[in-house]
Amino acid sequence: MKRIILFITLLFLAGCSKGIAVNIPDPIASSHEHSGYLVGSLGVNTVWPATGNKIVTTLNIRHIESKEMITVSRFDSSPDFETDALEGQLFTLALPAGHYELDSVHFKGSNGIQTVKSKSVSNVGGQIIIAPNQVTYIGQFITSSLIAKSPLWNTKYPSGFAKIHHDFVAERDKQILDDQHPELRALVFVPSPLDGLDDQRLISTIIE
Asked: How far apart are CA 56 and CA 103, in angstroms?
């Protein structure tokens, strides 16, 4: 019964925004360790020709102790926030307390003719500590398409390969979190610096 209740709680809290999909391996989902919360946002540049609108972005987050991989994907546009240049959604995961790291990112896009799949190198850096009864905020990840140029028409277009710009918009994302999960408002909200993360590594490097 305890495991069923935990699963329902994770299902409710994980990937709560529309257009976000989360996969938490069973050894982590069924852990009896005290839980904390991992929060961030996934979005895209919406300005042509660098728009990431047609790109599915997946963050691969490794639980260091077990080496299990958690994935968070943005596969559809149903924005929690939107400006003239970008849009995106919040993700919220209940996870066992412990050490995690951002391992890599995967991209699935299109060059207008065919599907393009690529990924970054592994071990991109970014240490994450989940503490009991605390919200750990890891910032926003905004995907842009790498730009290609047609030799025939001399026009620029999205190549389907991608890169991510990472930064922190804590005030905006805390407000979205409060609206989506008022039961978490009383918890300490801690921005994580993602020690060791290098933005230059969050880019299509390996073609799949």
From this structure: 17
Tell me, what amino acid is at 123?
Answer: N
User: What does pTM read for this prediction?
Assistant: 0.90
- In the block, residue with structure tokens 């546009």: 77
- Taking alpha carbons only, the member of 101, 132, 117 closest to residue 31 is 132
Read off φ and ψ for residue 83, nearest 5 degrees.
Answer: -130, -175
Element (H, E) at 5: helix 2-13
Rounded CA gap, 109 and 117, in Å?
6
What 3-state class would DSSP assign to 15?
coil
| Distance from the Cα of residue 171 to its chain's centroid | 18
The answer for residues whose C-beta is within 8 angstroms of residue 45's C-beta and 6 or more apart is 51, 52, 85, 86, 142, 143, 144, 145, 165
In the chain, what percentage of residues exceed pLDDT 90? Answer: 79
DSSP state string for 132-180 = TTEEEEEEEEEEEEEEEE-TTT--EEEEEEEEEEEE--HHHHHHHHHHH
**Mind listing the pLDDT tens digit for each residue in 135-169?**
999 999 999 999 998 877 789 999 999 999 999 99
C-alpha distances out from residue 165 to 16, 35, 124, 140, 142, Å: 23, 29, 13, 8, 5
